[in-house]
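Q: We require from you a single protein entry containing the residue sequence and its fold in token form, and nothing else.
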Amino acid sequence: MGSTASVIAEIVDDVKQRLPEVQPPPEIDDPDSARFRLFDSIATFLKNISQAQPLLLILDDLHWADKPSLMLLEFIAREIGNSRILLVGTYRDMELSRRHPLSVTLGDLTRERLFQRVLLRGLTRDDVARFIELAAGIDPPRGLIDAVHTQTEGNPFFVTETVRYLVQEGELASGSVGDRDSWTVRIPEGVREVIGRRLDRLSERCNEVLTVASVIGRQFTLGQLRSIVEDITEDQLLDVLDEALAARTIEEMTDTIGLYQFTHALIEQTLADELSITRRVRLHARIAQALEALYGSAAKENTQELLRHFTAAETQLGVDKIVEYSLAAGEMAIDGYAYEEATTIFERALAAHEPDEIDQTRAELLYGLARADFARLEYYGRGWDAFREYFEKTGQRSRALAIGFHTPPDGFRLPQQSQLTERILGVAEKGTWEEARAQVLHAWTVSVADGDIEVATPHLEQALKLIETIDHPDTRDFVLDRAAAIAGNYLRLEECAEFVRSIPNLEDHQGSMRGGAGMFWGCASLQALGDIESSRAVADAIVAAGERFHWRLLWALGLARQASYHVVEGNWEAARTAMTRYEGFEAGGNPAFNFELQIELMSSGDKNRLGELILELSVDLTRSPFVMARGAAVLGLVGWSTGRSDIRDQAIEMARNVIDSSPPPCLGTVNLLKSPSRYVP
């Protein structure tokens, strides 16, 4: 103990003060021997302490340790194997390269199996949300949480610095946070400094190449860099990339040879932000043209990447390429059911392409936007007449037909819609699937939107006749769905249920996904007829199809029917879950959904109380003609079945408002109020 204490006293002042009688250790001329005595004394000192009580030693920021300190760490690690000592060291792996002294130490310890490495993952979104809540004293909105988590990738230091910066800038003041839908988070100076120190260790040439790579994107390939970076051979380029790999600023993607990725998105952003706007635009232009030439005939397969660079280089290269690749990107988004993304793409392209008169390109862009709008049930019909007339005028029959087949579902109506479907009838080829769709669409429009079942009936019968002779499953499903929608709107329950039973493989109901109202009515009809199991199967299939095809209307209608059969079974918790998922859907809204739930209680509940409840809700029904139409129909049925004149009068008033609206929706159900016996057997 004496020799150990004397050595420790030389390096720890507190020991020397507490043990003044300890004599200095004898001097040793050999440096290696002197170092061994020091290391052995420290290890012995720690082991002696651990005999009295277990000892935990924490060594923080080991990436800053010098080589002698790391040699001491290795020595102690080998000596304390049988002692009651736990030694914990922390380091930032982003700071290490293969040549860093700590990398050598970790390798040596691994070979001797003296330690266990614990990789700390980044913070989750929930962790980030909780941190913002504690640091800023607010309930953070989802957009803020996503922005911080995406920017930092959960790195605790980056999260801390980013949130601290937002607080200092007043961005997280309680009065302003809730009013913002989107967030753009800048890189705080503290984070820039950390990343800057790492980049400063790299050669100037390496930084130049990485700057080009940062403008290409988070991921980049060796081939892309070769086509863009000038005055460098492939071997020199590989040397530069090896330097960046050793510094862990980039990493190789093991699944693809020659594919690299920045180890953190903030490294990419830091490099790109150091460029002036002019240089960045010019670099995007070089990259766009080089990549287009590199991809050649496969350019359309890399549409999104090329569109991003051509858009960033618009001031230098113009808009022609932006429009060209926007068309391709928008179509890809629609094919992938990414309708919100498609809307954004088409809108930007239309803003860039504004000819004096509509041309093929603008017609295609409008067509794409209309289909994306249709899928989201938003702003339905923007530019509809313009591009439809262009396609008809230029003889593009198949394109004009495709537009006509995108007719809106129940409650949504274009001006002069029945005239449109009548024109589609004239364009469709007779005796084919085209005519079958055109006939049933015209029947549906005339019966449901115009309220004239007598005019619609011959067209419906012709469509049903055609699907018996043609082999076109999607059209068969489409016709049956529309037929069910017509029957349902006139409360022909048996007929409606039979149409839906005739649709095979409901979960793959792509042929009629543009409508889905027939499945909804069929589900309700089956339930009203007492076939609960079939009704449940249809409701589940509607939800599954809506989720599979990203079709909001199908999804919402399915949830409404799921909630309905949960109510019939008395499973209110499940019904509330479905209602919660349905809440906020704009096509019909919650008031109409409440009516759908309440109508299920008519056969067994207090109908008078039901009518009063509906009247209480009716004030919310004036916000759209569609909601008002559905509410008027339900009110009328309740008033008629209970003999309550006040409910009946309220329904008639709402129906008049619906009929007077322009254009009037859902007249099939509203016309029940005129003469119920005409439609209900």
